[in-house]
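Annex B. Sample input.
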Amino acid sequence: MKKNIRNLTDKEFDLVVVGGGIFGACAAWDATQRGLTVALLEKGDFSHATSAHHLKMVHGGIRYMQHGDVYRVWESSRERAALLKVAPHLVHPLPVIMPTYGHGKRGKAVLGTGVFLYDLLTMNRNLRIPDKGRQIPRGKLITRQEVLKYFPGIEQRGLTGAAVFYDAQMYSPPRLALSFIRSAANAGADVANYLEVTGFLKRENRVAGVRATNVLSGESVEVRSKMVLNTAGPWATKVLETGMGLRLEQKPVFSRDVCFVVSRPPAGKYALACQIKTEDAEAIFSRGGRHLFIAPWRDCTLVGVWHGVFDGAPEQVTVTREEMKKFLDEANEAYPDFSLSIEDIAVVNTGLILFAENQKESSKISFGKRSILIDHDRKHKVKGLITLIGVRATTARGMAEKAVDLIFKKMGRRSPGSKTETTPIFGGQIEHFDGYLGQARERRPYGLENGVLDALIHNYGCEYPGVLKYIDENPDLAHRVANTKVLRAEIIHAVREEMAEKLGDVVFRRTDLGTGCHPGEDALQECARLMASESGWDEDRAKKETDEVRKHFLRHGVVAKGHPCGAAP
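Annex B, continued. Sample output.
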């Protein structure tokens, strides 16, 4: 995957995709797979914003049962199945315990019925998933004793047991987006990060491409195309306003979603859904407060999500220390045995997702329901321009398929149909993941420890030998970066093969170094030295890059030291 500015300027593409988050990544892959010539342009690094900073859940739609929204249940279940099929290294099933109390709406009978109906509605949830380890089991009821075995600190008054349902979880959201992008690049797409779209090329009432600026060099370029797909997420309206003077009749509302990576080992394989005071305003059948999730993730624990309308500039989204304390108080009230403090937070994940109109500080909130797909020819009489603003990462592949269908229609070309629902993405050509992992452990290439090898295969799937090849040219690259599970070879691979331009690209998105915790100062310095040697940085550039990464951690209130979740066994 190489950035080639000359390729971008020398030809006319069928499609330019603006924005390299999960929706843009899926759209670029779908369009390229169907035979279109595609350029993907991202103003920062790929998947640098919301697509990397969420709860990492792949929701199967069980919450929509409360809304009576059968379509969203089916859509979510289908898209969860697609991700489990095409990215078995990056997506896996996650069992969730939902405690039951008494005999009313929170009782076993009601919850058990709900889970049973959900299983009926999603009978095709494992369609075309041959790997049993990636299939979603049916829900079940468990006893009070079983609940307390996994979560002994739960509120016990009136506890009768729990309903267990299954969702899925991403191992690494940024690597999932990157795997879609690498799939597109391998199929012929031209992709570029740090290339910000600043305007549109116009031909009468038609968009004929984009103007863009290289954020790192200041160079301006023009990229010609027959169609442009705007997938810039919370920046999508700014792209329209500054580039075309277009304003949407109803400006999208975004929520600042917040979740924490906590430096506590997981309680077990189950996630816990705890009820809190805030209610879902649109639930037809309400059981009380909405749920806060406490979930195992790698060697840490995830806690979230908190929602709130955000109307500032997307790049200004952050979480204050006071807000962290407030959220922790709510988490501790929901599960008192947790006793979380600020010092337990390893990473704060926050991003902007589509939401509904809400009154601030209300005890009831309305969530976003549908992604927004706009044909600007119909809306504004501007041909060649489509906007897609997604509502959930789970549905990115399916919404990208719809967007590309529309693109073919607007181009007057017959679409060959999407195959992204069943075609494995980069690293995903693994029939049975657990067996594949077991075989790799038996071989132990280069004598790698199981924890290091597991992380490597989760991140790169069947393409992990492409990382290890660097060890043949330099055996020193078989060592870990400080006391982490990341190999030095991964740093070199990120620069040479995955378009890593900055230290933060490697720390936060290409590797596991900073996605679960601060890796420690030694790890940052070592990673910076490797990148400096590979990229030709001088001492000042290396220091600047390291300072930027430190500021990122400090901006999120994280203690600047390594956490247990980042250490290798």
